[in-house]
Amino acid sequence: MFSALGRLASRRPWFVIAAWVVLAVAVVSLAPTLETTQEESEFLPDHYESIKAVELQEEKFPGATSPAALLVFEREGGGQLTVEDQAAAGRIAEELGPRLGEETFVQQVVVVGPDGEPNVSEDGELLLGIVGLAEDATGFDPQAFEDAEEMRTDLAELAEGSGLEVTTTGSVPQGLDSQESGERALAIVGIATIVLIVALLAIIFRSVIICLMPIVVVTLVSMVATGLIGWANEAFDLKADSSIETILVVVLYGIGTDYILFFLFRYRERLRQGADTRAAVVHALERAGEAIASAGGAVIVAFLALVLSSLGVFKAIGPALAIAVAVTLVAALTLVPAVVTVLGRALFWPSKKWREEPEAARFARAGTSLGRRPGSFALGSGAVLALLAVFAFGFNPSFDFNSSLPDDVESTQALETFQDHFAAGASEPVPVLLQSSDGQLAPDALEQFRTDLEGAEGVAQVYPGTPSEDGTTAQFMMVLDNDPVSDAALQDVKGPIRDQAHEAAPEGTEAFVGGTPGIFADLQKAMVRDYTVVFPVAALVIMLILALLLRSLVAPLYLMAAVGLSFAATLGATVIVFQHIGGESGLIFMLPIYIYLFVTALGTDYNILMIARLREEAREGKDPRAAAAEALKHAGPTIAAAGVILAGTFASLMLSGNSLMMSMGFALSFGIIIAAFVMSMFFTPALTALIGHAAWWPGHADQKRSPGSGSGSDAGSSDRGAEVSAGM
């Protein structure tokens, strides 16, 4: 199949290129825009308590006002607010309402509390205004963010000359700042990724055209992939997290460049043997195609395993990344060979170094040492992985997406100012819904429920219940002791508060605790469930791919065990850097999923390249230790180059200024380095050398081939030289 693709691309290159261009234009013209969400509740299924609370609130209290934004009023230069200042704040809020009359997310603007008194802090230095969320508005759509930006402009005009400074925070302003931060991060990451890839390719190939080719190819691929993802999200009503666009840039450029490298190393080596351009393209795709397809298949399967998740964020991210990799894979097997055919030997301009065979002396020495002492290499590399893996048990998940906002944005600064003067939980009272199945709720039962709920650990205050129109449901607003998005609030809600609410509910009624901490508590429960489903399924399917590729039942077992150890080591290293050294209370809850999928799938790519090369050497008649030594000598340069480029692209996420992206960038880049330079380069070949012939049971694919059997000695030593850089 791969030789047929090579012949098609080499004989009709302009046809293949034109087909890709037409496809890209059609997709860009017709596909819907890729939309994302930051609303955590959209990530959860309906059977969780927090979602039941949201649905009951919408049904029984359709006109209820949820806070869309908080207005923080303080004197310019600080100090206590005077009566005149409070009156000025009231005037600003009153005049702001009509200005926002046509906005989509605002229902009303108030600066007084439930008791009718101004929302002034105990020290008298701050006054709080609340912008209510309009009915049927989510506050997480693009229009709401535009409205929030206009609201800030209006507030600046209204506050001019009043002596007051007004800043905004809350869900919608935080969403606006997150969107703007994400756009900046996308630009920074995109530029850094491109610069890094160009620089590394320049060092490896010393060719201007090769430096630019991945940029052009991946740009075309990204147009197609983004459009297809938009269609998929629309067709299956998938809710993509706002970080998906930044991650897509890294995945497309990183993996795309890796696959281009796998092909180019083979193509270059065949040219060195005297083949013309078309013959070299066919040969390169025939030899590298299986590795590229197997590697891509492992990545796609790993991402598709996320459809088994109960969380909408993973259900959307999984197919999105799978589509991106699938399009990249097809491009690597069709578009890249076609472009290379058109360029011919001009591809390497202006360098002439491509004609010279590299010595790979360092990898030769390392391979010789590994072949002599495989036990020492296996023990040493395994010990490094195991030591780091111990720290993975200290991982503390965080569920607050807004905590990833930079410190210098307005919503973060306004929230910090608010929390300095008000109770931590006052920024977002938590709704508790009490529903009766036996008719209307009695007033004395409501008061008793409020009293019991107020006695729960972690509760500062509970406002009297508000009955619904039919009297069957009551809503209580609860102020927590801790910040509603903190880990402490999550622990309080999922433990003593929910327990107390459920126990205090009168006979014939049911209580539902919602709000942000309720959503976080349910996210944690869903996450634990997903770990027990997604991880094993992804591992089993990748093991099946390895078994089919290697025709062995033994090798896939220890290869996947090695990948699992690399995953734990990566998570442990991230915990050390961010929790122990950086002082972070926790890391975003989705981080282990990302680490597992990327390290498992991409680590498997490098294992495939190394073990396939080791098998090739064994087929030449070498014993297991000699085969491992030669495999490291020849496959090492390819894995090193691919690993450095891919790790570098993931590391560019650390430049985003977003704590979520920074931790993810470190984890994924470190994981790729571990997978390339510890696991696949030393740990797995050393284990294979120790296990020996038994590693290939029952297929025994390492047996020496007869001259007429295919890829063995009939290829001759010159053909083996073609595999120096391809890693087969």
Automatic annotation (TrEMBL):
Keyword terms: Cell membrane, Membrane, Transmembrane, Transmembrane helix
Gene3D superfamilies xref list: Multidrug efflux transporter AcrB transmembrane domain (1.20.1640.10)
Pfam families referenced in this protein's UniProt entry, alphabetically: MMPL
Membrane association type: Multi-pass membrane protein
Domain SSD: 215-342, 552-690
Matches recorded under PROSITE patterns: SSD
Major site of localization recorded for this protein: membrane
Compositional bias of kind Low complexity: 706-719
PANTHER family reported for this sequence: MEMBRANE PROTEIN MJ1562-RELATED, MEMBRANE PROTEIN YDGH-RELATED
Recorded family membership: Belongs to the resistance-nodulation-cell division (RND) (TC 2.A.6) family. MmpL subfamily.
Record's protein name: MMPL family transporter
Source species: Nocardioides deserti
